[in-house]
Design a protein that fits this description.
It is built from four helices and six strands; from the N terminus they run H-E-E-E-E-E-H-E-H-H. With about 200 residues, the protein is of the alpha/beta class. The protein has a six-stranded mixed β-sheet, with helices on both faces. Helix 1 runs parallel beside helix 3. The longest helix is centred in the C-terminal third of the chain and has 24 residues.
């Protein structure tokens, strides 16, 4: 994250740091990989009817993302595209998702809007940007106010939390209790480690 080189797996790690509370009416679902015209589901809650707002995030290989904000009370779907998408790609992805949405909510007709398209030149780290936009949508934040400085502030906040956890764990490390079986990767200074 700090080097602007997040990988898709980092998305779920970031998402897991933001807990979904049991009584919340909004949720960010784990991403799905979209390959041509088929989808491969990852995990999701069994009953989406309990939520007023569902935020679906999709990874398109190699490094493009789509966010669909589904609002059941207003019966709208807002689409957000992060990365270099041609307009026909946006339409194909939206069509694919609308088919899945009809299966999940067969009795509801949704109005679709393309809200935002951010080309890859805005930031080198589209994974983190996707996460921040999804988080802003979940908390009803102003995603249009995001700029490079605010994205950096989010990164610093997440890094500070990681640093505190990291330092807390290392602060309990007692070198006198280390053995080759408890910590095989630790060696005496200058000694070779054989694996």
């Amino acid at each position: 994250v700090c080097e602007d080189r997040s990988i898709p797996q980092d998305f779920n790690a970031l998402k897991n740091r933001v807990e979904n509370r049991e009584n919340e009416r909004s949720i960010i679902l784990d991403y799905r990989r979209v390959h041509e015209k088929t989808t491969e589901s990852i995990s999701e809650p069994s009953d989406l009817r309990n939520f007023d707002q569902v935020i679906f995030t999709f990874l398109h290989l190699p490094n493009k993302w789509t966010i669909f904000l589904v609002s059941k009370p207003t019966r709208t779907v807002d689409a957000y595209f992060i990365g270099d998408f041609a307009s026909n790609e946006q339409q194909d992805v939206s069509f694919l998702f609308s088919s899945e949405l009809r299966e999940r909510f067969p009795d509801t007709t949704f109005v679709w809007k393309n809200r935002l398209h951010i080309p890859s030149g805005f930031t080198a780290d589209v994974v983190f940007l996707t996460f921040i936009i999804a988080l802003n949508l979940k908390s009803h934040g102003d995603y249009l106010a995001l700029d490079k400085e605010k994205v950096l502030m989010y990164k610093c906040a997440f890094f500070e939390e990681f640093k505190n956890s990291h330092d807390h764990w290392l602060g309990k490390f007692n070198n006198d209790e280390v053995t080759s079986s408890s910590h095989p990767f630790v060696s005496e200074r200058g000694a070779a480690v054989n694996y």
